[in-house]
Structures are given as structure tokens and as C-alpha cells.
Fold this protein.
Amino acid sequence: MAIAVLALPLALIWMLLNNHLTLDSLLVGYLLGAGVAAAAGAGRGRLRGRTLPRQVAALIVYSVILSRDIFLSGIDVARKVLNPKALRPGILAVDPLDRRGLYAALSAHSITITPGQLVVEFDHENTLYVHCLDVVASDSTVAGDQRKRLRLFKRIMGDG
Amino acid sequence: MVGQILGLIALWFGVGFAVIGIVGLLRFPDVYTRIHAAGKVSTLGLVGILVGAALLMPEATPRAIVLTLFAVVTLPVSSHAIASAAYQRGVRGKNYVRDDLSAVVETSAKSEHDGAT
């Protein structure tokens, strides 16, 4: 069931990559997508029809936030390039709030896109160590950002 | 016509940011700040160039959308991998205001050493 649903977006990507928006291409893409989803272990996951619309909505919200962050991040770093004296570099420890590997990894990806922050390392308890271009400014926002981020990830995963 | 003008604007926006990214790579003081310059500014540059390509060449639009998606998903991972490798090799940054990681790394190195003896 999960494989059958997940193969759909993969089929769409296949069609876009090939630039062939035909039924044949959809069919081939769907079969390949099912193979990829099965290989990635989607068969073990559960899909609940009731929460799926909410999950997809959360994913769309997250994509919008991510696009905005990429934009702001590029502009923020570009301004610091033109004025390197404004740098106050340092490394902060950030509690991921949920120490399961999946959420720590998603958080690390998201933090690295956040303006002026870059995950350098994890420790054994999955605490994130974040290199900041302006450690003083980041220190005041990083915990609140992580709370919002984790809430969104859990909604995307259908986990609360 | 409007599409072409928007495409050219996006293209030059992207090229501008790619150039600033390279300037940052040269100007910033240490490995980690340089990764910021290379990773972030260049991501925005690449996205700008791809959006420009999508608007200027309609036949390439679907491919540009998918490439943008792939770039956004994978570029932060490479930044993270380079930063992590540098830290584990003992490369430290300059003029740190604060470093929460150095304490952790020193303690774990010490305990590994203790374990060996």
C-alpha cells in the first residue's frame, strides 16, 4: 500500500526528468518508482489515509519555509561576504528535542539551510553542533526555531 | 517576451550570487566560514540560474524544476560532510566567540586515550 502511493510522486519526477508527459512514460515511471520505493524500505512503513492529507499539507508548508530560508540565507551570507568584519563565528550545541536518528538528520539538513548556520558534527546522543557566522544572533533564535521545525517534521511523518 | 525578461533577470541574479559566493570563498578567514560562502550563496546562485533556464527555454522547464529540487536536497549534505571531515581532522576556526564542540571532542579523545592505556 505504502509502495503503491509513494511510487506516484516518483513517477512524476521520472516524467519531468524525461520531459515525456505521456501515459507510457507514466507507466514506466510508476513501475520504476515502485521498485525504488520497495528498495528504500517503504514496504515496512504504514500509511494512514486519515492523516495523509495533513502530512502532505505539512510537507508543502515546509517546502515554502525552506524556499524562503534558501533565499534569506543566500542574501545574508552575501552581505557578510561584502562586509567580513561583521563575522562573529562560533559553534553552538543544539538539542534536537527528539533524539531519534531520523529527526536529528532532518533537523541537521534544515539547520544547514537556515541563514548563517551549518551543522558540523553530532555527538553520541545526537546533539547537533552548529557553526554560526554570527553566534550571538543565532544563540537567541536557535532553540525556538528547532521547536517549530520539529513540530513540522512530526506532522510530515504522521507522528503527532 | 515577459517570460524572457524575467528569465534574464533570474539568470543574472543567479550569476551575481555565484560570483559573490566565490568572492566569499576567497575573503572569509577559515574553512567553516568558507563553506558557508560556497554552500549557501552558491545554492541561491544555482537556483537563480535554473529558474532563468526554465523561463528562457520552455522545453527544459520540467528538468530545471527537478534539478532545483535535487540541488536543494543534496547541497547542504555536502556542506555538512566537508565541515565534519575538517573538524575530525583537527582543523579549528579563527576568532571564535564561542565553541561548544571543542570541549566535547577533547573529553572524548581523552577517554579514548584512557581506554587504550
